[in-house]
Design goal:
single chain; 9-stranded mixed beta sheet
Length: 455
């Protein structure tokens, strides 16, 4: 019986086979007459599962540790892992590159108003101080400039512009509520002396509120609002017409409900009555129109703007926009392209930090109202503040106290019921000097973002 299958070895080989095999690589200790063979030893029956393994020459020797054999498919498994790691790295780098491109694009869209910042620095001593830490007040200015892409909305008279819409946005320190107060453009106000773009100075005057923007830009408007309210304006944004249209289009339109049909040629708006979805051009006409609705007053227009903004915020806060990158990016792109901000909000990070701090505010706590106003005594086409109601509202905002709003009809009814002699105030008609409780929280005519235009 032979040690292995095949041709029996020659006697010399058989005799040599009886000797113990020399250790590989130990030639110095081998017997001088030890036979050499050129054949590769085959697997013996004692070790049927062992496969020959190539050894590294540097790992051989009398003290070398035995090398474990690779399992079947190990090379293929390592190759698969390498390709997987490479693929993941490519995806991560591509995502990072794409994210960086999006960031740079959005960040580059934002324009900075450095002129206003320099002008405000000149009057820092005259400006009101912040009262409540972490509460913030932003002034949102809708420009009616007819320059550039806005030329289709009227004649460009050399670049002059007025603030078509001005909103004082107060963000509570705890970021659990936000209050947006519309300031009528026809409101008569004390406008301070302001610097013009050409370096000249205007005179202090009592004039229509929106002329402040025309005379001295955002800085003049901010100082006029601060003088009127005693509220420190922390940041400001100027929004143009074309950007507003793009934002509405980016959220696939905003739903409105109309009691009567509308036909306003000046605002490029013609709509039937009922529920409908407005996109860019129609949405812009809807918030700008005065002659197509009711009595054509600026008050009604502001109420309509507030309702529309509430519906827009409600749409943006929906999961279909915020959780869908393909829908969110167009909204951010339109928003950043449409605004000019102060240096404190001129980066995407600044805007993101601001939005992140308020995105958890429930829509019912986002309130819209118009500053208490009435027709100006000397010109019914202009407005004036109703006092002491207006000052009371400004004081609540300064002190970061909650603001309550209700539909106009409910507010009027409540005021009628608390008039002296009505009986609901607990006093008889002949009681002297009836007055409301000083602890009572006033309720202002307004709405919230949860209501929407269609309920």
């Amino acid at each position: 019986m032979t040690d292995s299958a095949g041709t029996p070895p020659e006697p010399e080989d058989r005799a040599g086979a009886e000797q113990p095999p020399p250790a590989t690589g130990a030639s110095a200790d081998a017997e001088p007459d030890a036979p050499k063979t050129t054949e590769t030893p085959e697997t013996t029956d004692a070790e049927p599962d062992t496969e020959p393994t190539a050894a590294d020459p540097e790992d051989t020797g009398p003290d070398a540790e035995p090398i474990a054999a690779d399992p079947e498919g190990a090379k293929g498994g390592r190759r698969w892992l390498r390709w997987t790691a490479l693929g993941v790295s490519v995806v991560v780098l591509a995502a990072a590159g794409t994210g960086w491109w999006f960031y740079r694009k959005l960040d580059g869209n934002i324009q900075t108003d450095t002129t206003a910042a320099h002008e405000l620095d000149k009057y820092e001593r005259d400006r009101p101080a912040s009262v409540v830490h972490d509460a913030q007040n932003l002034l949102l200015i809708g420009s009616d400039s007819r320059a550039g892409n806005n030329s289709s909305y009227g004649r460009d008279d050399g670049g002059s512009q007025r603030s078509d819409t001005t909103i004082l946005l107060h963000l509570a320190a705890d970021r659990l509520s936000a209050t947006a107060v519309s300031l009528p453009r026809d409101l008569m106000a004390d406008i301070p002396a302001c610097g013009r773009p050409d370096g000249t100075q205007t005179k202090q005057q009592f004039a229509q509120f929106n002329s402040a923007f025309e005379m001295g830009g955002a800085a003049c408007t901010i100082r006029t609002v601060e003088n009127m309210t005693g509220i420190r304006i922390d940041h400001h944004m100027v929004v143009d017409f074309s950007g507003f249209k793009d934002m509405v289009d980016a959220v696939d339109g905003v739903e409105v409900c109309l009691k009567e049909p509308v036909d306003d040629r000046q605002a490029h708006l013609k709509l039937p009555a009922g529920r409908q979805l407005l996109r860019g051009e129609q949405a812009l006409g809807f918030v700008r129109s005065r002659h197509g609705f009711g009595d054509g007053s600026d008050t009604q227009r502001m109420d309509r703007q507030q309702q529309f903004l509430g519906s827009l915020i409600k749409k943006v806060q929906s999961n279909g926009v915020l959780l869908n990158p393909t829908r969110l990016f167009p909204v951010l792109d339109a928003a950043t392209r449409s605004i000019t901000t102060d240096p404190g909000l001129n980066t995407l990070k600044d805007l993101y930090d601001l939005v992140r701090s308020v995105r958890g505010i429930p829509t019912e706590n986002i309130r819209f109202l118009t500053v208490p106003r009435q027709p100006y005594a000397y010109d019914s086409d202009r407005d004036e503040l109703v006092q002491p109601d207006a000052d009371g509202l400004f004081k609540q905002l300064r002190e970061d106290r909650p603001i309550k709003v209700a539909p106009a009809a409910d507010v009027t009814k409540a005021k009628e019921s608390t008039k002296p002699g009505s009986g609901s105030d607990g006093k008889r008609p002949d009681d002297p000097d009836p007055s409301p409780s000083p602890s009572a929280t006033p309720v202002y005519s307004g709405t919230n973002a949860a209501s929407g235009m269609c309920g």
